[in-house]
Amino acid sequence: MQMKSHIGEKLVLSSQRQRCSTEVRSKSKGLQDQCPRASRGLPTSMAGAKPKTPVDIVHQNAIHCETIRKEQMSQKLYTEFSINPFKKLHVLTDKPMSRNTNEHEEEDPTFLKIIHGARLEPTKKYTHPQTESQEIGWISTPLIVPDRSDRRLNFPRQNSEITKYMDAAWRLKEQTQNLG
């Protein structure tokens, strides 16, 4: 709606606004008894929304019981607890003023076996590689026995006059850098 500069039209528009606001106030007075939000001037509900029905406690209890039943179907009850052997175990020292420093408790052999087994390398823990990256180098033993006398597979380092000269030059350069 465009605002015109005539004073009469402004008065008409302002009187229409006042009339609308008084209608809203009179309607909300009836709601003040029903809804405490209306008494504070807060919006009572969205346009066209139905007022909320009171909470049915029996229905809420049935929903709660069904939720618990579903949770219990998928739960497992563990009664034996132990330390995770795959996490680092940080042993803490005793308190400085404690009196029971010399007491030694019995060692649990199954627990020690689990802890020592977790510290092993993967090839000793498992029979097959567990990941793709473990497949490379899983079998690290050589396929054939190395024979140093066989010239086909053994290529020893050979020195010529040039390699001996460069070897000496590099050693001299490293010595001068370390001294200086």
TrEMBL record:
A GO CC term assigned to this protein in UniProt: cytoskeleton
Keyword Cytoplasm: yes
Stored PANTHER family: PROTEIN FAM183B
Family of this protein: Belongs to the CFAP144 family.
Region (Disordered) location: 1-52
Annotated localization: Cell projection, Cilium; Cytoplasm, Cytoskeleton
Swiss-Prot/TrEMBL keywords: Cell projection, Cytoplasm, Cytoskeleton
Organism expressing this protein natively: Aldrovandia affinis
Source organism superkingdom: Eukaryota
The protein's name in its UniProt record: Protein FAM183A
Sections of the chain in a coiled coil: none
